[in-house]
Design brief:
- This protein has 264 residues and is mostly helical.
- The chain has one domain.
- The protein is 71% helix and 0% strand.
- It is built from 12 helices and no strands.
- Helix 2 runs parallel beside helix 7, helix 8 runs antiparallel to helix 9 and helix 8 runs parallel beside helix 12.
């Protein structure tokens, strides 16, 4: 069992490597995409600097915590789209019957699909995340925790996209649900949770688990609590398992388009 898991992870990493090599054929475009993404992310911080010049605290966060929040948001976004880019257009692949070539491969279908391409600009998000961590003056321990939260948060984001996209096996236009769900998660992730109240805040810890992707991790990095760290890990594992279950349940309903396109 462990050997099979290890082999599948190795295959997925090789697939990502080959996709990255394809993107690097045009090195100028490759590096410009990264640089412009960093600049794009940095431009949004200006509004927070202006806001904090007017008042000291917003939603219970100081300026450095907001920078850390943005770093985590950028990091999880970048990690998810660099390593699992196809998870975010999985609905299109299902609706157009393009799973055929993945089904005939001796590999995990879901992992084969979502790791079959990369977004180079997502590397800019990852670099930006660590710039924010550096500004926050994270210790070595916190950098390791920061990296852990980028991975768990990215996997939760990917899992939510897979779960919502897999609804395409049952419903038409489920791609709109997936796009809306992921968009809401990435949008709200950059705002202090203290500004949200009531049902909205409950939503962030249930159907749209932004709290486990960004808010709780920021709290742990500010003041370490082991029980919250374990909670984040358990929630990430839950959504990963749920994503696999929903996808493979839906796969039984898949209708082929008879398009056989070779994949390496």
């Amino acid at each position: 069992m462990l050997t099979a898991v290890r082999n599948q992870i190795r295959i997925s990493l090789l697939t990502t490597k080959y996709a990255l090599v394809r993107e690097m054929l045009n090195k100028a475009t490759f590096f410009m995409n990264i640089v412009f993404m960093i600049l794009n992310d940095a431009s949004f911080i200006i509004q927070w600097v202006i806001l904090y010049s007017i008042q000291d605290g917003i939603g219970g966060y100081n300026l450095k915590q907001v920078l850390l929040l943005w770093g985590l948001a950028a990091g999880t976004f970048g990690f998810s789209r660099f390593f699992f880019y196809r998870a975010f257009n999985l609905s299109e692949i299902i609706n157009n019957g393009k799973l055929d070539s993945y089904l005939v491969q001796p590999k995990n279908v879901l992992l084969s699909v979502i790791t079959s391409d990369v977004s180079t600009s997502a590397l800019g998000d990852i670099f930006y995340a660590y710039i924010m961590a550096f500004i926050y003056k994270c210790s070595i321990t916190n950098i390791l925790l920061f990296t852990f939260f980028i991975i768990t948060g990215g996997l939760i984001l990917v899992s939510i996209s897979v779960i919502l996209s897999s609804l395409s096996f049952w419903f038409q236009k489920a791609d709109m649900i997936a796009e809306t769900g992921v968009s809401l998660m990435t949008s709200f992730a950059t705002y202090p949770d203290g500004i949200f109240k009531g049902a909205v805040k409950i939503l962030f810890y249930t159907l749209l688990p932004v709290g486990f992707v960004n808010y709780i991790p920021v709290g742990i990095l500010s003041e370490f609590r082991l029980e919250y760290l374990i909670l984040v890990f358990v929630v990430a594992l839950f959504f990963i398992v749920l994503a696999f279950v929903v996808f493979y349940r839906g796969l039984h309903r898949y209708s082929s388009s008879n398009l056989m396109i070779s994949k390496i």
